Amino acid sequence: MYITLRDRPKTGRQATPRTKSRVSSVVVTLGVVSLMTDISSEAVAAILPLYVTAALGLTTIAYGFIDGLMQGASALVRIAGGWAADRGDHPKWVALVGYGLSMVTRAGLLVAAGFASITALVAIDRVGKGIRTAPRDAMITAASDPAHLGRSFGVHRTLDTIGAALGPLLAFVILWAIPDGYTTVFVLSLGCAVIGFALLALLVPDLRPRRRAAREPGEHPAGRPFSWRSVAEPRLRRLLIVSGALGLLTIGDGFVYLALQSRDGFATQWFPLLYVGTNVAYLALAIPVGRLSDRVGRARVLVLGHLALLAAYLCAGSATGMAGLTIAALVLLGVFYAATDGVLAALAGQLADTSVRAAAIGTAQTVVAVTRMIAAAAFGVLWYALGRSTAMLLVAALLAAAVPVCFLALRGLDPPRPAPEPEGGALA
């Protein structure tokens, strides 16, 4: 009589939801939660740059402040969310608080009046995003096979990006049918947020990473008490420094889209389609690039992905208004996010001790969020002082100098790959 390796009886420890041949159902369900939540958030985000600069008549400095707030308001609470998930060993409930907070702000948008109240609600929504992100990514890591962690994050980010593409597309349809239909966009946003919150509450189990003894190659042993010293260990420090340096040269999609819009003269109702173009490219590439990072190294893919961002800056800074350059800029932004978003979380989660996994992921994401907030605010001033093309090309030149330095700084950071196990092997 033969039984497969997967059917082998479990003794001595709780069984994990990891599988060698497929992505965990927990990862898929979390992806659907993110899909609905991103429809909610991106429908609002897609109309914001033009709403601020055209409808409200504010300058790019004002938009730079708002965009920086969207990038950075979640920064410090990402660490707090990761710490709470690790400390209490209940990541689901911490994530649920974050999703719930964002859901409440959607209702607030229906009654908000004026720039100040909308800005405050955007900030609160970003705080909710900061609370939920690290616990959610820690659950993805706990539910996944370490050898295929990039693929798991790729699947999650694919579902997440479907929502990120649908949100702006639905906003476009609404504004096309109702030119001033901002309230309708807010109603759609609230409904999707409620669905995402309910799916997380009802269908996702409360994975508890510290109860799962991981002994995979490249991972730390589980069960240690929580300690910030583990978050600050040397390999993670190198990742944080490099991520921060590159974040300072990531100015935000909104500025790229405004540059393309000012050059090509997109009508207001077409503007959300720029977000759709980037998200479609990200959607197509998230899984392939995640699997590539599993094979060639996540640190390597993370840094080299910024070359796509560099090329996007060059396209946006060009004085030529060719449609091909606009499409290329959107595709390149999608490549950049496919190579960095889930890959950063996968790399931080793999390097971290199991007892501080959520805190490590949250810290890495916080560093990126804070530095991008600074970059957005500074670039708003740079655009105002130098103009669109000069400002874009200057940042592109700085990024070109930073990429090779950061690549060398992360050499040897990727953990060793575990030896492959035969699928469906037999034991007598």
TrEMBL record:
The chain crosses the membrane at residues 43-66, 103-124, 159-178, 184-205, 239-258, 270-289, 301-319, 325-347, 359-385, 391-410. CDD domains: MFS_MJ1317_like. It comes from the Bacteria. Residues 26-414 form the Major facilitator superfamily (MFS) profile domain. InterPro entries: MFS, MFS_dom, MFS_trans_sf. PROSITE patterns: MFS. Its main location: membrane. GO terms for molecular function: transmembrane transporter activity. Keywords: Membrane, Transmembrane, Transmembrane helix. It is found in: Cell membrane. It is a multi-pass membrane protein. GO terms for cellular component: plasma membrane. This is MFS transporter. It comes from Jiangella aurantiaca.
